[in-house]
User: Fold this.
Amino acid sequence: MSNIELDKALFEAAETVRVNAYAPYSNFQVGAAILADDGKIYVGCNVENAAYPVGNCAEPSAIAAMLAGGGRRIKRVYTTGPGATPVTPCGGCRPRIREFADQDVVVVSHGIDGTPLEQTIAELLPHSFGPEFLGR
Ligand code: THU
Assistant:
């Protein structure tokens, strides 16, 4: 499958799950789709909470789905959200993705009224701390 076909599948998966996001406080629904090392696509959406800081972003929801479904490593990430500005992973999500991704793994961030932005996890989180520092 070409990257164009793959991104179409990831975009559709992220958009399909995004409508299920629970975001009554921000009204900012986000979808995330991960291509994992088992060849499957895993999805997640943001889940907010009345106690604001304990809400979850879409990306860790998709990572949890990946691990629960048997995937172990992230091969590509695609996030979708409202507006024209690419919905890039927040500062808390970047190390969460990095834990399961090689440095050259691409994260596609897409505000659906605009153009998708492609960045590697190394670009999003340069000089990062990771599992290998702890011998893993
Ligand atoms: N959000 C995500 O789920 N992922 C991102 O990459 C950016 C932000 C969520 C968190 C919160 O529920 C809402 O978007 C507004 O910040």
Q: What stands out?
A: The pocket of tetrahydrodeoxyuridine is lined by residues 23, 26, 28, 30, 46, 48, 55, 57-59, 79, 87, 89-90, 93 (CB under 6 Å). The mean pLDDT is 97. The first helix runs from residue 3 to 18.
